[in-house]
Amino acid sequence: MRYTDKIREIAKKILADKTVDLIIGFKRGTLPMMTEPVTVRDAEKTDQLYWDSFCNMNLANYLPKREEKIGIVAKGCDSRNIAVHIVENQIKREQLYIIGVPCEGMVDRRKIISLLGDKEAKEVIESDGEIIVKGEGFEHALKRNDYLQDNCMRCMHRNPVIHDALVGDLVEERKEPDPYDDVKDIEEMGSGEKWEFFLDLIKDCTRCYACRNACPLCYCPTCFVDESDPQWVGKSIDPTDTMTFHVLRAFHCAGRCTDCGACEQACPVDIKVRSFTRKLNKDVLDLYGSEAGLSIEERPPLDTYRPDDYDAFIR
Amino acid sequence: MSDKVIKKEELPNVLKILKETYEVFVPVKEKGFYRFKVLEDENKVDLNFTNTRLSPKSLLFPQSERMFEYSLDEADEDAYVIKEPPKDYAPTVVVGMRPCDAKALRLVDVNFVNPEFKDPWWARRLESLTLIGLGCKEPCSTCFCTSVNCGPFNEEGLDVLLFDLGKNYMARAITEKGAQLLKLAGVSEDATSDLNKQAEESKAKAEKQIISHVPTDKLKEKKAIDLFDASFWDEVAFACLNCGTCTFLCPTCWCFDIQDEVNKKKGDRIRNWDSCMFPLFTLHASGHNPRSEKVQRVRQRFMHKLKYYLDKYDNGVACVGCGRCVNYCPVNIDIREVFKLMNET
Ligand code: SF4
Ligand code: SF4
Ligand code: SF4
Ligand code: SF4
Ligand code: SF4
Predict the structure, then answer these.
(1) What does the pLDDT average to over A94-101?
(2) What's the confidence (pLDDT) of residue B1?
(3) Which atom of ligand 2 is nearest to the CA of A206?
């Protein structure tokens, strides 16, 4: 896509002049609609770098505890997770050269695959707001905006919030009347209905933790589900244990989640795990007027203490 | 026995007869993807699927299995005695298993049933199963079964193989068990030589349609230590999330972990799928972890599949080319590329 050349150009320059030791970006995948996160250390090899509407993983995930100087390609959401990392001391701002990508939303590969049913996409080309999907005996021209990831359809921060370079003009942010209409639908359910909804949601969960591992926020050296002494949660696919995992993970992400959607994109069984985190995002916005990762100056609301807090219990 | 024919409109009837004697599993599309489930309505069976998202290994090797139960209550006369809970070994038929997945069961079997060990649950379930396979007349571009001693109409591991020929299925009994099953289901009409020819053509066409090929010829002669020390692992592993998706979806991954779960005075010993991609897999009680780094875990997965298994059992590589990991690895770590790296460098 149109950003690819610019990404390569910037990467080449900052590797050649030693601004950074390596670049973290995407390379073209081995399948249509797939990309692979990659590191490039050699200015002569920046042609590997690539950009299209399927660069869906969150590259901030590859930053914690790295020591080098890093050039990183970042969409709006990745940049917010980078900001979260900086605030949480996982990486230093000075170590980073952020190659910002004004994002037009990522296209959801699975939506296209499910549209095709038992047919297979052999070639996928992007042009002018369209995705042309070709296969044995068919060719579809799809409007890309109809096939965006669910999170991208509601994203309000598509432009990188911090960056050292931009690969294109800033895009217009959407002015959705209500980015949380989906959460409200769940809020309106009765408690029994909610319980059923969430039980059904996680029914197929394999406890593989791909959602957690794809998430930049989940950098704990040992996740609570992996602790064995004490063992906080059972490891089988018993629904109680599975629910414990999901609910606790969501709480660990409260006030930190940028709704990048990497969790859902990684899940091998299409579980809409954002249904958990989005409620907390909404609550944090409603209660504290805060959205994660918009600034590297501010502490996240849930780890802030103020002597003049309006709640007496905390003073 | 000669090949038989089942008219498509007769399939529901065949399934209905089988249902009287067997527990019948068929592919069912639910929440967007196929999985094997107990047959409910034989009139709604849909065999127009590419493959199930998760492999059918869970039919023999469930993700969580209660192995034993026990009581810790001293008032109980059986206190501290570990007992096997009742298990279901009812005769079962799986309809529509893909040849790669059937072959995978054979690859896993050498691990679960061998001169040293016998996994009783795996073995008994395998005995109680009859597998009706469905040849792949339209293989996907990510299937590379023909490179790994398998193929879209491979018969190994199946009892019956179905060829989808438009209005009819041709049913080929591969084992005596399969022949008996067809007989029981009233499938007796011999396939005409014309149908037979169509089946062979469909098979040849499908084999040609496989466009993914991986090299394996040099894996055996390579030294494991050289592959282990190869320079490409860092690059292969960089993007990996250690999410375990590849191993959980894989029909040949067999690793498990055993856990005791106790509630008040009652306990269960459960075995759960585990994966070499998880750091916990190799964590010692001392706190030492011999595979503490991601690159070591990624290397283990590929070395196990493409080298250690091959060396240990002389039974080919532990991959049947189903392409699940290729399609569902969220960061596109493609085993076909690793085959090339391991075989060629
Ligand atoms: S969440 Fe926003 S910034 Fe992130 S990929 Fe989607 S549209 Fe782009
Ligand atoms: S990625 Fe999906 S299957 Fe895996 S633990 Fe998360 S929700 Fe469950
Ligand atoms: S390694 Fe991948 S392609 Fe091979 S059998 Fe397992 S899931 Fe299928
Ligand atoms: S060691 Fe890894 S690759 Fe081998 S069977 Fe176990 S989980 Fe699969
Ligand atoms: S599916 Fe991909 S990212 Fe996940 S553990 Fe396997 S190779 Fe790594």
Answers:
(1) 98
(2) 65
(3) 3
